[in-house]
Design goal:
Layout lengths: L1 H7 L5 H13 L1 H28 L4 H20 L5 H22 L3 H66 L3 H6 L2
Amino acid sequence: MLQQQTQQRPRPTKRNKELTLHILMRQPSLICLILTLEFSISVSQAIGSMETQYAAVPGLGDTEEVVTLAYQAVLRAEQAGANVSELLDRLNEATNLLAQAQVAYRIGHFEEATSLASLSRNMGVGVRNDALTLRRSASSESYQSELFTVIASIGGVALVIVGTIGAWILLKKRYGHGVAGAQQSR
């Protein structure tokens, strides 16, 4: 009976392989379809596993954006004339925490990565808020400084004009009619 079962099963022959190859070659769209399906299945599995792991570390991507926004706020505060040295130190610390969180994520320490990302995010938000406050303050101080300069300049010009007029009046009283009176006496 075992011999009968073995004989009933067709063995792959060279002719069968050629026939299968011939069918596949005549249907290039079938080959493309099979390859596309295989590729899409592989990609979806890879993305699904990445999303599952990324979900294990909430806010890691968001933290990077927060730190970037903090950097931009510090840059604008510096351009407004604020002293941002302390903010730069804190921003460096937030960046280091973010880098440590990314390393912890890559090696699979998701709990540590979550904690470091949270610290970095909080520090980034604080730096951004402080930078915005410093920028407003620096802009206000700059406006006040410009206003003081304009008022002082106007006051200085007014003082020179009043002093000149006062000196002219004093000299006129003291020396009389001036040059016109001297010419008439000759």
